[in-house]
Amino acid sequence: MTPYTLHLLRHGAPDVPGLLNGRTDVASTAEGSAACIRQASTLDFTHVVASDLQRASEPARAIAEARGFPLTIEPRWRELDFGAWDGQAPTALDQQALTAFWDDPEANPPPGGERWSALTARVAAALDTLPAGPLLVLTHGGAIRAALHLLCGFDRRTLWAFALPYACRVSLQIWPGERPNTQITALVS
User: Fold this and answer.
1) pLDDT tens-digit profile of 69-120?
2) Can you list the alpha helix ranges (DSSP code H) found in the chain?
3) Digit-coded pLDDT (tens) for 9-37
4) What is the CB-side half-sphere exposure of residue 114 using CA atoms within 13 A?
5) How far apart are the first and last CA of the chain?
6) 125 by DSSP, 3-state: which?
7) Which end of the chain has less Cβ packing within 10 Å, N or C?
8) pLDDT 10s digits, 154-186
9) In 3D, which of 31, 28, 24 has the Cα closest to residue 14?
10) pTM for the full model?
11) Which residues contact 179 (CB under 8 A, 6 or more apart)?
């Protein structure tokens, strides 16, 4: 089995950072997209995959076009659907419900939103259909956490301890086969 590199890149900052933008389709700022393009400029990859939401797909399109690489738009790389909380500031929500969600997003999903298991199932399906070769996936913080859970075996509590700022990159060396079978080569940069 030949290992391959998987770069997971979080989208750039939106106009109003910090909102629970799951399915809400907001763009990154020009500076946020530029930060993603800079982050990708030194990486080795031959294919770009992106969430279909514009904050991920627009910089991914620019990166793929600039390098002449194929681009696959994949909705399974979307952020967690926050349901009734989508697009809201965390400070505007019921703090007890929000705390319960952060403590256990499987048992306490957002009202009308997605459970952690649904997000991880989506990301697992997306991982299983990735093309061969070194890859760049432009996606969202929740999807990156789900991928780290699936590929590295981190539990939810550990995943929430990782800071994943806008335009950060997580690079993984993947050995095909049973999960978890991954080496982290650069956690966040």
Assistant:
1) 999 999 999 999 999 999 999 999 999 999 999 999 999 999 999 999 999 9
2) 30-40, 54-67, 95-103, 116-128, 141-152, 156-161
3) 999 999 999 999 999 999 999 999 999 99
4) 22
5) 28
6) helix
7) N
8) 988 899 888 999 999 999 988 776 555 555 555
9) 28
10) 0.93
11) 150, 151, 153
Residue 24 near residue 188, CB atoms below 8 Å: no
Closest CA to 57 of 88, 82, 25, 80: 25
Give dist(CA 130, CA 57) in Å, integer: 16
Token match 């990782």: residue? Answer: 162
What is the residue whose two structure tokens read 């979080």? 10
The interaxial angle of helices 141-152 and 116-128, nearest 10 deg, is 70
Phi, psi of 54 (to 5 degrees): -60, -25
Task: List the strands of the sheet with 169-174, edge to edge.
Answer: 71-73, 47-50, 135-139, 4-10, 169-174, 182-186
Tell me the domains of the chain and their CATH numbers.
Answer: 4-186 (3.40.50.1240)
Crossing angle (nearest 10°) for helices 30-40 and 54-67: 50
Amino acid at 151: L
The residue assigned the tokens 């993603």 is 36
What pLDDT is stored for residue 186 in this prediction?
A: 52
Q: How far apart are CA 187 and CA 189, in angstroms?
A: 7
